[in-house]
Structure formats: structure tokens, C-alpha cells
Automatic annotation (TrEMBL):
Stated name of the protein: Adenine DNA glycosylase
EC number: 3.2.2.31
Source organism superkingdom: Bacteria
Family: Belongs to the Nth/MutY family.
Keywords noted in UniProt: 4Fe-4S, DNA damage, DNA repair, Glycosidase, Hydrolase, Iron, Iron-sulfur, Metal-binding
InterPro entries tied to this protein: DNA_glycosylase, Endonuclease-III-like_CS2, Endonuclease3_FeS-loop_motif, HhH-GPD_domain, HhH_base_excis_C, HhH_motif, MIG/MutY
Any one GO molecular function term: 8-oxo-7,8-dihydroguanine DNA N-glycosylase activity
Reactions catalysed: Hydrolyzes free adenine bases from 7,8-dihydro-8-oxoguanine:adenine mismatched double-stranded DNA, leaving an apurinic site
UniProt keyword Nucleotidyltransferase, yes or no: no
SMART domains reported for this sequence: ENDO3c (SM00478), FES (SM00525)
UniProt cofactor(s): [4Fe-4S] cluster
Residue stretches making up the HhH-GPD domain: 38-190
Length: 295
DNA sequence: TAGACGTGGCG
DNA sequence: TCGCCAAGTCT
């Protein structure tokens, strides 16, 4: 029965949930939103200390909205995808301007905020407000894909079939749905992992269709993410240099790009990286040929 | 919708 | 060692 499945996962979560800082009593909806944005494509272990420092410095949306982008980018440090930091700050500005400094409760309103997509909107409704929402992240997709569909790994793109299947499993009661969302996500993060699933520790082994079929390997090839020698790597090196720069100081173009010249995929790559960072608002050129983080 | 977008740790 | 992968979003 579905009720039995929900209870099994909820009980497992109660016994095994990690003590993540944003799960502690007293965490505000803003704190939950910050944790969700930081956790987009970044391992939770690296997010936890950054989140504590961040919330200590900018405890309310209004605090972050008033911060200088340079400070925000330095505080983001090496969480990766620094555009998220800028979007989070813009999000804080909109919370102040449009929602009286509060985090909205509906998915539609949340989706209208920068840096908030389908997953994050659902997660905030569920984990920050206790509402009923379909949380479908990579963990949930993998767990349901294995248990229900018998697939080793979910397809590259979220399919309509997955959405319908997950929606059928979502408890009707709000409080129960929150426990289900938390539980399935945590199960995917700790037990039903992508590489070496710990099936012997899984509360769902008996009813896992993938496991019962002998845990067959993935069929489709995973899309490999290019990295070495890419523009993305070059952008990361530029940002790393600028983060180290003392406040108010600038770097000349050659001084900034020299470390990238050697080993660049092509001669234009360093300049291309810098230009794209400028276009993204991640760097500024306060005077011709001088560079720094956006004030 | 496929591709761009950081960073580091683990198997 | 090195490819895979991590609570996605945006265009």
C-alpha cells in the first residue's frame, strides 16, 4: 500500500536524517531558500559551513539586498557557478521590493524569482512552508526510477512520465508529503546513490523493482560534462584571481589573464572568458583595462 | 531542448 | 589516475 510506503520512508528518515544546519529548529524560510540555492549542483558537505557563515552575515533578505556584489561573490567563495550568488542577491532585492522582505508561499510566486526554478520552488514550499509540492530533484528521480521503474539511472532530461509517476506517489496530506519529500531525497543522498548504492541498508530493497531485476546497469550513456580546457575553466580561474584581490584594488588585463595564456585551448580563450564574465555582471572594468569584482 | 555554467572529492 | 557526479537554472 501507498500508506505503508510513505510510513516506511518517513520512519527511515526519522532514524537516519543528517543533522544539516538548515534543518535545525528556528531556521527561517529565507534560510531554507539560501540552502536550496547553494545546494544546486554543489555537494551538501561543502554547502553547510558556507551556509552558516552566510546566514550569520545576512540573516534577512534585506541584509543581502543591501550587500555589495563583490562581498557576496567573495562570500560565495568556491561553491561554484558564481552567477547563483548574484541571482540570490537579486532574489533578495525582489523579496524586499515585491514581497515585503518575506519568502512567498506559492510555487508561482517563487518561480518568478531569479535563480529559482521548478525544483527550488517546490523545495521551498515543502521544506520552508510545510506545503504540498512535488519535489523532483536528482535524488528523487533516481530513487523512484529504481524502485518504481526498475531503471539504474533516470534519463538525462526530466520526462512527463516521471512527473506523473512521482505525482501519483505524493501523499495528499501536506505534512505527510513533506516527510515523503525529505525522506526520498535523503534516501537518494545517503543510500540509493548514483555510483555504489548501499542496497543492504535500504528500507525499500524488498519492493525495489531495479533490485529485484538483479540491479542491471544503466542503458543509456550519460552525458559527460566537458571541463578541461573549456571556457568554463578559464572563467573559474579569472574569478579565483579576483576573489583574492583586496577590496578596492584592481588588476590589469595582462596581469589578470597572464596565468591563463599558457595552456589555453586557443589564443582568444582568456579574453573571451573575461568578456563573458563582464557580460554576466561577474566582473567590472572601472577604468579601461582595469578589472575587479562588481561593486 | 541541448548546451553552458564551477569546483572538488570519491571510487 | 581520472572520469563521474553533486538538493539545477537559464537561454
Amino acid at each position: 500500500m501507498l500508506t505503508d510506503l510513505h510510513a516506511t520512508v518517513a520512519d527511515w528518515y526519522t532514524a537516519h536524517a543528517r543533522d544539516l544546519p538548515w534543518r535545525r529548529p528556528g531556521t527561517t524560510p529565507w534560510g531554507v531558500l539560501v540552502s536550496e540555492v547553494m545546494s544546486q549542483q554543489t555537494p551538501v558537505a561543502r554547502v553547510a559551513p558556507a551556509w552558516e557563515a552566510w546566514m550569520g552575515r545576512w540573516p534577512e533578505p534585506a541584509d543581502l539586498a543591501a550587500a555589495a556584489p563583490a562581498d557576496v561573490l567573495r562570500a560565495w567563495d568556491r561553491l561554484g557557478y558564481p552567477r547563483r550568488a548574484l541571482r540570490l542577491r537579486e532574489c533578495a532585492e525582489q523579496l524586499v521590493a515585491r514581497f515585503d522582505g518575506a519568502v512567498p508561499r506559492t510555487e508561482e510566486e517563487l518561480l518568478s524569482l531569479p535563480g529559482v526554478g521548478a525544483y527550488t520552488a517546490a523545495a521551498v514550499v515543502s521544506f520552508a512552508h510545510g506545503g504540498r509540492a512535488l519535489v523532483l530533484d536528482t535524488n528523487v528521480r533516481r530513487v523512484l526510477g529504481r524502485v518504481v521503474a526498475g531503471r539504474a539511472l533516470p534519463p538525462p532530461g526530466l520526462t512527463a512520465g516521471e512527473r506523473v509517476g512521482a505525482a501519483d506517489l505524493l501523499p495528499a496530506d501536506a505534512a505527510t508529503s513533506v516527510r515523503w519529500n525529505e525522506g526520498v531525497m535523503e534516501l537518494g543522498a545517503l543510500v540509493c546513490t548514483a555510483r555504489a548504492p548501499r542496497c543492504t541498508a535500504c528500507p525499500l530493497v524488498e519492493r525495489c523493482r531495479w533490485r529485484r531485476a538483479g540491479a542491471p546497469p544503466a542503458t543509456h550513456a550519460r552525458r559527460r560534462q566537458a571541463w578541461h580546457g573549456t571556457d568554463r575553466q578559464a572563467r573559474g580561474r579569472v574569478m579565483a584571481r579576483l576573489r583574492e584581490l583586496p577590496d578596492g584594488r584592481t588588476l590589469g588585463t595582462e596581469e589578470l589573464l597572464a596565468p591563463l595564456r599558457e595552456g589555453a585551448a586557443d589564443v582568444a580563450q582568456p579574453d573571451r572568458a573575461l568578456a563573458s564574465l563582464l557580460a554576466d555582471g561577474l566582473v567590472t572594468e572601472p577604468s579601461p583595462g582595469r578589472w575587479t569584482l562588481p561593486g
